[in-house]
Write a structure and sequence with these properties.
232 residues; Rossmann fold; 5-stranded parallel sheet; 10 helices
């Protein structure tokens, strides 16, 4: 019998602050970190690099599933609040590429494909190693780690999430349009919540935190209180 590995499953829609919370928890507990949303973005990036168009329907599910199965990825916490997570794909640093809005849209497209989700399932499970894991995504508490010790569903209104993303990108010197971001987030929510496989929804035993009217410090305080109560 293997030793128990504490697992924190953190789910929610795009722009809800999961990344900040996940990095905070991983640092606090010195746990491994899985950014599952980045995995789907990485599938999209790898597909683009292989000259596969993702705008057309239907997508080639078999090919994209094979790309998912063969991903070679690493997440490395930097403890730099401006750039807290280094991401490599086949040894190349792709952290900035992963965070683009285009990568997010591509992730939502490929995430609806059962072959891609199957291809990434075992890879995601493999991140569960001692001393523990913080798993950030959309189906961590429902599908990938249903046995997780702590399940948190972090959400916020689409308007609030679009405004946060807008401020982040403007701060990085990127030219963006708030209305376009809002529409992109709404479309992504629609795809994520209505896909046939592992739709975005809180686990029955998840703690739901609506951060629409909270600043990040309030969110972190709420999350830390929940995790402390469950893990000590």
């Amino acid at each position: 019998m293997t030793d128990h590995v504490p697992t924190i499953a953190l789910d929610g829609p795009s722009g809800s602050g999961k990344g900040v919370v996940a990095n905070f928890l991983a640092t606090q507990y010195e746990f491994h970190l899985l950014d599952s949303g980045a995995l789907y973005r990485l599938v999209g990036i790898a597909a683009r690099r292989a000259s596969i168009a993702l705008e057309n329907s239907p997508l080639n599910e078999a090919v994209l599933g094979e790309i998912a199965r063969r991903l070679d990825v690493a997440f490395i916490a930097t403890k730099n609040p401006e750039d807290p997570l280094e991401i490599t794909l086949f040894g190349d640093q792709v952290g900035h590429e992963v965070r683009t809005d285009e990568a997010g849209v591509d992730a939502s497209r490929v995430a609806s494909l059962p072959a891609v989700r199957d291809g990434l399932f075992e890879l995601q499970r493999s991140f569960r190693q001692a001393p523990g894991l913080v798993a950030d995504g959309r189906d961590m508490g429902t599908t990938i780690f249903p046995e997780a010790d702590v399940k948190i569903y972090l959400t916020a209104s689409a308007e609030a999430r679009a405004e946060r993303r807008y401020k982040q990108l403007i701060h990085k010197g990127m030219g963006v349009n708030l209305h376009d971001l809002f529409q992109s987030i709404q479309a992504r929510d629609e795809r994520d919540m209505n896909r046939s496989v592992s739709p975005l929804t809180p686990a029955e035993d998840a703690f739901v935190i609506d951060s629409t009217d909270m600043d990040i410090e309030e969110v972190l305080q709420n999350v830390k209180a929940i995790v402390t109560e469950k893990l000590g």
